[in-house]
Structures are given as structure tokens and as C-alpha cells.
Amino acid sequence: MDRPHTQAFLVGGPESEPTPLSATLPGPSPSGMSRSSAGKRKRSNNIADLASVMAQNHAEEMRIHERMLEQHQRQHEQRERHLQLAQEQEAALRRDELTETASFHGTFLNHFGSLVEVLKAPHL
Predict the structure, then answer these.
(1) Which entry of 12, 27, 34, 121 is 20 to 30 Å from 107 by CA?
(2) Largest CA distance in the chain
(3) Which residues contact 33 (CB under 8 A, 6 or more apart)?
(4) Which one-letter DSSP state was computed for residue 20?
(5) pLDDT for 12-68, tens place per residue?
(6) What is the pTM of this model?
(7) HSE-up (13 A, CA, CB side) for residue 106
(8) pLDDT in tens, 78-99
(9) How far is CA 75 from CA 78, 85, 88, in A?
(10) How far apart (Å, rounded) are the C-alpha atoms in residues 71 and 47?
């Protein structure tokens, strides 16, 4: 079922002529040409502006990246210091533990030797 082609009109008031709806809408005219070139910049300026904005964005991204790398490096160094401190503390604890163990073994052997001597002695 084909519909006949119709054009919409706006009516402004009793004394005004009807205006085609397409004439009041923004965008290209029916012929495909732009209605007005006022306020438009030349294409070469847009490219230069875009290149400038992109260069500024790139520079800012590089600054952010450098700050992140510096922060990462500081965090890495801090973790290394903490690891070294923990290792030093563990080594000190092991030395203390070994000293205490050696002292215990020495004392135990002395007491055990005394017990053996007592058991070797003739009983009366």
C-alpha cells in the first residue's frame, strides 16, 4: 500500500503563510548544502588545534606516567627495606635461638654426665 508523498507545514498564525517544516529544522537543507558557513573555522585550523590538544594530552599523560613510575620505584624501595629489616630480625632471632639451644645442650650434658657418674659409683 503506497502512501502519497506529503510535506509538513508549520502555520504561524491567521495572517502568515505556511512554512515548510524542513526550513525550520537545523541541519543540511534538502539540497545537501549547508545553510550558513558563519562561525565555522577553516579545516586547517581544526587540524592544528587538534594536533595541539593531542600534544598537550600526550605531555600530560607522560607526566602522569613519570609520576606513577617514581611512585612505583619508591614503593619498591620501601618493600626492599622492609624485607631486609625482616630478614635481619629473623637472623637475630635465629642467633638467639641457637645460643639458647647450645646453652641448654651444654647444661643438659653436664647434668646427664653427673647422673652417669652417680650411677657408676658403687652403691653401699
Answers:
(1) 121
(2) 148
(3) none
(4) E
(5) 545 555 555 555 555 554 454 444 555 655 556 788 899 999 999 999 999 999 999
(6) 0.45
(7) 6
(8) 999 999 999 999 999 999 999 9
(9) 5, 15, 20
(10) 36
